[in-house]
Structures are given as structure tokens and as C-alpha cells.
User: Fold this.
Amino acid sequence: MEKVLLLHSSCDGQTIKILRYIEQQLGGHYLCETQDIHQSPEIDFTRYDRVLIGASVRYGHLNKKLYQFVEQNQQALDKHITAFFCVNLTARKSGKDTPETSVYVQKFLQKSPWHPKLLEVFAGALRYPRYNWFDRTMIQLIMRMTGGETDTTKEVEYTDWDRVSAFSRAFKQL
Assistant:
């Protein structure tokens, strides 16, 4: 049985939800362990066969701790079967929903010394009622400028679960 380390850098939980879905898709042939990059102490990568990192974008940026984690663990990551996915609201739009067309994935690849074997980008979720006043106001402004949902009473999940399933299958085949 292969051991898979599922790591996340999540703002509001959609990245974690996607990781849990991927874990289900991997099925019983994989023993999965999930950890938060922001709270993980030293990781013994020798305990794992595969590593998958999911990270979300907030206000146009991936978390700095993600980059620090990757820099500190690049050699270990390079010795494993690895994959990375990025979660953001821009990916809800056609033409901005592939690793090649996502400015966030491209920026990650430019800034990161680690280049995973598999990349993907998924649209996230908009959860206005769960945000504090500042985040709700700022996200509403951004959504207004980008033609998105602006009704602050709504929660909208843009994640394409069929694409997540396809990514899961591709991760298995690495």
C-alpha cells in the first residue's frame, strides 16, 4: 500500500475539501495523511511514496509559508512522486482554468525551485457569509471588477469536481 502525504495551504477550507475528495478518489490502495503546511513541524518524507500539495490564493497571492516550505523541503520533494494544485476564484473563468493559463500557477513555477510532476488549477468557492466585514467587502469589490457574484448573502462553489476526479486519476498514474 502506497503512502500519500496530502499537504495544504488553505485560507477558507475549499482546498482542504478538495484534498479530502482526492483522498476518497484514491481509494483503498493508498494510505493518506493530511497536514497543514502552516502548522507542520519537520516532516519525515521517507515515510511517504507520493506528495500532493494544494494551495489557495488570497488577494492575488499564494501564502508566503508555502514558498518557505517548498524551499526548505525541495530536495525531499524532488525525490518523490509529486503534484500541486492551486485553488482560486479566477479559475472559474474559461481561459484562466488551466495550469498554462493560470497566472497564479505560472507565478508559482517562476518563484518556486520545485517543479512537481503534475499540476492543476481549480476554481474555489465564494463564501460571503463566512467572511469578516473587510474580506467580504474586498472580495465583493474584486468580484464586481471581474464580473463575478456580488450578492453577499450567497455562497457559491465553483469547483469542477469532474476535473478534480480527472486530476486524482492522473495522480494515481504517475
Notes: The mean pLDDT is 95. Helices lie at 14-26, 64-78, 103-111, 133-146, 161-173.
